[in-house]
Amino acid sequence: MAEPAVRNRIDRRRERTRNALLGAARKFLSEGRSAVSIQEITDAADVGFGTFYNHFQSKEQLFDEAVRSVLQVYSEMRDVIVALYDDPAEVFAVSFRMTGRMQRQIPEMIRVILNSGMSVMLRDEGLAPRARRDIIAAQEAGRFEPMDPDMAVMAAGGSLLGLLQLLDARPDADAGALSDEMTFHVLRMFGMTKRAAQKLTSTPLPPQPEL
């Protein structure tokens, strides 16, 4: 009878260890320190060196999973908010405006994305696939002018990462105002009129979900 309870305790302990390793990896990545050793990672996670390989085959796999975990948090927050909207152009605008504001809410996680560089826009999860889907839908609805979707994603991604880097460098800047301004320019790049872009970047945003 005790076996399931023992197994549950073991599973919980394994999950805590794995989460501790991911947390340490996110911290190192947020500091731009990807050259650390596995020993440094396990020390930072306060777990035994030998336990590392019970969860990850290599440091590279751990770091990849750390980036993935950040993108998952972003995706969950974003998806809850944009579910309130039907217009694909507004979904794109709300996503962009929200992401800029997230730099103040989860700065360490945003730094993980920043230190991943433009390669984060080539991943199959997180920002890129959602932006691509929204852009294609907005083009098909006649809200954005036709543009190669992959090029559009990279253009929007470059603007977004530039915004996040600026906000990281200027902690006293108004994240909301700068996020809305950058969103306006991206919408204009995608062919929206000045009036339409202003409308989409001036409407109130819903509250961001709590982490």
Walk me through this protein's architecture.
This protein has 211 residues and is mostly helical. Helix 5 crosses helix 7. The protein is elongated. The two termini are 37 Å apart. The mean pLDDT is 92.
List the helices and strands and how they pair.
Layout: H1 3-30, H2 38-45, H3 59-82, H4 88-105, H5 107-116, H6 127-140, H7 149-169, H8 175-189, H9 194-200
Helix pairs in contact: 1-2, 1-3, 1-5, 3-4, 3-5, 4-5, 4-6, 4-7, 4-8, 5-7, 6-7, 7-8, 8-9
The biggest sheet, with number of strands, parallel, antiparallel or mixed sense and barrel status, is: none
* N-to-C order of helices and strands: HHHHHHHHH
Total number of helices: 9
Q: How many β-strands, per DSSP?
A: 0
Structural class: mainly alpha
CA-CA gap between termini = 37 Å
Proportion of helical residues: 55-70%
* Mean model confidence by pLDDT: 92
Shape: elongated
List segments where confidence is low: pLDDT < 50 over at least 5 consecutive residues. Answer: none
Write down the Rg: 20 Å
Range of strand content: under 5%
Question: Keywords, please?
Answer:
211 residues, mainly alpha, 9 helices, 69% helix, elongated
Short description:
Helices cover 69% and strands 0% of the residues. It has 211 residues and is mainly α.
